[in-house]
Design goal:
single chain, mainly alpha, two-stranded antiparallel sheet, 12 helices, 4 strands
């Protein structure tokens, strides 16, 4: 019942999950899984935004000024970031729904199958003709299932957790698990660069890994909050106080306002008698309003070229102070796009349970999704096969012996993961 996968940060909230990510089995992580979105048709691929007409070009025999070069550099960076976001969003639109649906369905199936296995073992402990050793094996397996099922979410499971909480544990196996947990703790702490909180509470490798993952997730959340605070502080710092606006900022706002007014005048839908053309202008005007609200200079410039046919060479003849002001706007746009891309990568990594990067190979990420789905299907099939098999008492006894041996081997091998 093992799988393979990549990095993972969790899956939203509401229901319990069961995944193998970062090269380790996440069955003990008690990760929460959001119900999938409603079915939607496959999105049509959108063309990448064209920035080619916005670059400044100097007349022949004339070199671009430093401000003009800086304008083009910032514009190129905006183009790269915008295309990365668009491509990543398109990839997500193609795969996200199907993948989350598969993980959610498998998580629900595995939880029900493990609960059935738990209840069956409990019943057999009181009815089957098991030796003392076989009873210990059954109790050990039962406790391992309780670790995975998160008793708080189910009163019936909680009742069994309370019943077996003070049950005697096989001493030899408990010592092996505790030693393996300590080895795992040392590796994880070396990778995290800090100790695991209250490590003495976790006496098995799975419990230690689960504690480390929860601690890592809290760190990730704290990191996101710090980034959000930095973005807010940066925006506040860049916002001039009343009466203290610098000339470049004033020129930048003036440039934005000028472009906006030209577009508003050209696209005013009330001046258009043709209904189809009015609808087109209304849609364009909505795009203009959104860009102006975000101080998105490149979108306004693209729309200006599209609607008013402004010659891009006019920008190359712009005064240096105005160009510097526009560069300040472009720099802010670069920062905003970098933040957007970072947040998108982090969100998709959490939702899809793999490391999602805009610069990664899309085919490799898609294969990682497919491997994870196959792993979850295999886990479900293995649990179903186990339940069918142990319906016969002789097979139950053989299965208990196999599970005990697997548990010992697992304790000696230790889980592998992102800390290695």
């Amino acid at each position: 019942m093992n799988g393979a996968g990549l990095d993972m940060n969790g899956l939203g909230a509401d229901r319990m999950g069961d995944y193998r990510c970062s090269g380790l089995n996440i069955r003990a992580f008690r990760l929460e899984v959001s119900p999938p979105l409603s079915e939607s048709p496959a999105p049509q691929p959108m063309p990448l935004t064209d920035f080619s007409g916005l670059a400044l070009r100097a007349p022949e025999q004339v070199k671009l000024s430093p401000a003009q070069k800086r304008f083009n550099e910032l514009l190129a960076r905006i183009e790269v970031l915008t295309h990365q976001i668009q491509r990543l969003q398109a990839w997500s639109d193609r795969h996200r729904h199907v993948h989350v649906q598969a993980l959610y369905t498998a998580a629900q199936q595995m939880r029900e199958l493990r609960k059935s296995l738990l209840l069956f073992l409990h019943e057999q402990l009181h009815s089957a003709d098991l030796t003392a050793q076989q009873q210990r094996m059954a109790r050990n397996k039962l406790r391992s299932l309780l670790e995975v099922l998160s008793p708080q979410a189910d009163p019936q499971v909680q009742a069994l957790a309370d019943l077996y909480a003070d049950d005697d544990v096989d001493q030899e196996e408990a010592e092996e698990l505790a030693e393996a947990a300590e080895r795992v703790r040392a590796k994880i702490e070396a990778a995290l660069g800090q100790p695991i909180d209250n490590p003495s509470l976790y006496r098995t490798p799975a419990a230690m890994v689960a504690a480390a993952m929860r601690q890592w997730q809290r760190q990730q959340q704290a990191g996101d909050e710090r980034k959000a605070a930095k973005r807010a502080a940066r925006k506040a710092k860049n916002k001039p106080e009343a009466g203290q606006a610098e000339v470049p900022q004033t020129d930048a706002k003036t440039t934005l306002r000028t472009i906006y007014r030209q577009l508003a005048s050209a696209l005013h839908p009330d001046r258009e008698p043709d209904e189809q053309e009015r609808a087109r202008k209304t849609a364009l005007m909505s795009e203009v309003n959104a860009a102006y609200e975000k101080a998105d200079l490149t979108t306004l410039m693209r729309l200006q070229m599209q609607v008013t046919q402004v010659d891009p060479l006019t920008s190359s003849r712009m005064a240096e102070d105005k160009l510097q002001a526009m560069c300040a706007l472009l720099k802010e746009q670069v920062t905003a796009l970098e933040d957007d891309l970072d947040q998108m990568q982090h969100r998709l990594s959490r939702e899809l349970c793999i490391a999602v990067r805009a610069d990664a190979d899309e085919a490799a990420m898609t294969q990682a999704l497919q491997r994870m789905q196959a792993d979850q299907r295999h886990e479900v099939e293995s649990l179903e096969a186990d339940l069918r098999r142990i319906g016969h008492e002789a097979e139950l006894k053989r299965w208990l012996k196999e599970q005990a041996q697997l548990a010992k081997e697992k304790a000696r091998q230790e889980p592998a993961g992102w800390w290695d």
